[in-house]
Amino acid sequence: MRIVSWNVNGIRATIKKDFFESIKQLHPDILCIQETKAQDDEVQSALSRADGYELYCNSAEKKGYSGTALLSRKKPEKVLLDMGVAQHDNEGRIQCAEYGDFYLVNVYVPNSGQQLDRLEYRKQWDADFLEYLKALEKKKPIIVCGDFNVAHRAIDLKNDKANYNKTAGYTQIEIDGMDNFVGSGLVDVFRELHPEKVAYTYWSYRFKSRERNVGWRIDYFLVSRRLLEKIKSIQIFSEIHGSDHCPIALDINL
Q1: Is 166 exposed, middle or buried (0-12, 13-18, 19+ CB in 10 A)?
Q2: What is the pLDDT, as a whole number, of residue 216?
Q3: Is 21 left (phi over 0), alpha (psi -120 to 50) or beta?
Q4: CB–CB of 204/168 below 8 Å?
Q5: Beta bridge partners of 236
Q6: Fewer C-beta within 10 Å: the chain N or C terminus?
Q7: Burial of 100 from C-beta contacts in 10 A (0-12 / 13-18 / 19+)
Q8: Alpha-carbon radius of gyration of the chain
Q9: CA distance to 3, 14, 28, 78, 88, per residue, from 100 (Å)
Q10: How many helices and strands, by DSSP H and E, does the chain display?
Q11: Mean pLDDT over residues 44-55, rounded?
Q12: Is 108 noted as a catalytic residue in this protein?
């Protein structure tokens, strides 16, 4: 099974940039999309050419903002939306698809804001999301994928010292949040399999960042440790454009 995760930074814009050709190349069994920036009907219209997939959407109440979508060749047993905490559940950030042997969670974690004005909210979000994941994991192993909006370690961004505690995505509060996910027993698959490899999944549209490879690794697959032996590979497709993020793929025997 191949699971692909991709923050598309606006599905209606991305489908105009070889999106379907990229998906054909990636050939996912399940595709998890973050930051659709569209309402459910707009997502359904944009992805109508994705033949052979069941489509599930979770849109934000605010139009043109946030949102997630999941396409699956095999119909899940059920798809649940959000984490059940009122203050977090109006931005379309979580989808949970239940399959026979596991839960798949597609997530778009809140950004802490240019002025770090949402950092305290983000701290609470991370704590509540971890509690939500651990409750799921009591029933079945979990695979969590998406844009976590944090570079976990210095190796995960180009300019670590310049950004530390100054830039959203690399503050100690956000790093602590990822520490808590990993400390709870979830495994960062890419870093587990490639402990020393420098690879990024996001590049700002400013300053020719992608051309210069001034990037961040903020898109992840986290899995229950008992699934680790089933994983064949994880790949970051930095050559695929269409967004300021690139897709990542997990190949797993399930």
Answers
A1: exposed
A2: 98
A3: alpha
A4: no
A5: 248
A6: C
A7: exposed
A8: 17
A9: 16, 32, 18, 10, 28
A10: 7, 12
A11: 97
A12: yes
Q: Are 201 and 219 in contact (CB under 8 A)?
A: yes
Cα–Cα dist 66/76, whole Å? 23
- Residue 216: DSSP 8-state: B
Which is catalytic among the residues 56, 99, 132, 147? 147
∠ Cα 241 246 251 (to 5°): 125
Domains of the chain from N-terminus onward:
2-252 (3.60.10.10)
Which residues have CB under 8 Å from 114's CB, separation 6+?
168
238 is written with which tokens? 């930095």
User: Is residue 205 annotated as part of the catalytic site, yes or no?
Assistant: no
DSSP 138-206: TTS-EEEEEE-----SGGGBS-HHHHTTTSTT-SHHHHHHHHHHHHTTEEEHHHHH-TT----SB--SS
Alpha helices in the chain (DSSP H): 11-14, 19-26, 40-46, 119-137, 160-163, 172-183, 189-193
Query: Which amino acid is present at 59?
Result: S
**Which residue among 103, 108, 132, 220 is the active-site one?**
108
* Tokens describing residue 23: 């998906």
pLDDT (tens digit per residue) in 148-157: 999 999 999 9
Q: In what order do the strands lie in the sheet with 2-7?
A: 54-58, 68-72, 30-34, 2-7, 248-252, 231-236
The answer to whether the predicted template modeling score (pTM) of the entire model surpasses 0.70 is yes
For tokens 């944090």, the residue is 150
- pLDDT tens-digit readout, 116-126: 999 999 999 99
